[in-house]
Amino acid sequence: MNSISQDFAPPFKLIAPFFMIGGFFYVLATLAVFLFHAQDLVYTSPAVISFTHLFLLGFVMMTIFGAMAQLVPVVLEVGHFGVELFYAIWPLLLIGTLLMVVGFLYSPALLPYGGTVVLISMMIFVGEIFLTIKKVKKLNLVMSSVLISNTFLFFGIIFGLLMALSYAGTISLDISQMLRAHVYSVIGGYIGITIMGLSIVLVPMFTLSHSFSLTPLRISITLMSLGVASVIFSALLNIKVLEYIGYFLSFLALPFYFYIIYIIYKTRPRKENDIYAISMMFAYSAMLVALLLAIVYFLLHKEVFLLASAWVLFFGFFGFMITGHIYKIIPFLVWFERFSPLVGKQKIPMLADMVPYKSSQAQFVFSSIGVVLVTFAILTKSETLLHGGASFLFFGGLAFVRSMLYMINFK
Predict the structure, then answer these.
(1) pLDDT greater than 50 at residue 127
(2) End-to-end CA distance of the chain
(3) CB 385, CB 311: distance < 8 Å
(4) Which of 149, 153, 315, 377 would be a feasible disulfide site paired with 194, CB 3.0-4.6 Å?
(5) Is 305 exposed, middle or buried, given 0-12, 13-18 or 19+ CB atoms closer than 10 A?
């Protein structure tokens, strides 16, 4: 287990907007599902592309940036290079995401502007993280993963901006090839490797696990990095064999990651199944289902399985992985800032007391049912299941935001 120190943690008022805006986009993403038409869902449709950027940029990236602002200096045990820069990152990412979402749906002319604003916010983030890492003489595995993932993010946003310019008609590019490089850089290279690296800090910390080998994680990150790089080069050089090598290496990375997570959970002394534990169980189960659906797609070459795999990966794995950790991260940050100075002076709450039981359970139940219903709706092209699943997701999103505001304002 990696050592955690709060000595270099930034103030919570810096982190809170990332989580609150991320929650807002999570609810907005559930509403966006109502725009889908089950009979003619294709991954190139404006509604699907708009939803993807709404969810990944607005919820996933916004929340990860907030978590990274907190965890990077804590794990490195050095202060941020320029912590004030984070006050500029979330407004730029917010504006850029909204411009891109509206651009994909209604006005492609907005895409270059939205893409540029997102590019600026992410370049500030990547630059700040790189300069913070530069202050450390020796990197551990976790921070090496952060360095690798942010390098992929850098290339991913460049590919994305080029695609936005091409989509708007400003330049001429083969969007299908650039799309592969963009998607794999961001989802596999940045989000995937970031989750691998940070979960090996957060999961042991929240389950109290320790004394496990990091070798499986090292192998997993290496294979995933090589896989992502191979897919990127296949797109840029138009070499098909590199694409399949990249997919194979990426799939091969997952068993090693699942193995170390299994070891952590098997050796954990804290056995109770709280909202964090059941969220993690659902998230990892969803990852397995997404992987199986992806394999079926490669065997049958039917796009419906690719769409279902992406959906389960996004809302099932990313969604529950992030919301589950929010139920631990926010109480921890609020407790440390608001209540830790009172230790030994007066009665203070436990971290578990700061998590609202009813709304957190409601969020899990509604959201999990929604993910399952929409998955079957995509596979069966059922409009009824799609709208039913979207309704469950919406109420789950509201419960999540309610829980988050309760934890942030806990007194």
Answers:
(1) yes
(2) 31
(3) no
(4) 149
(5) buried
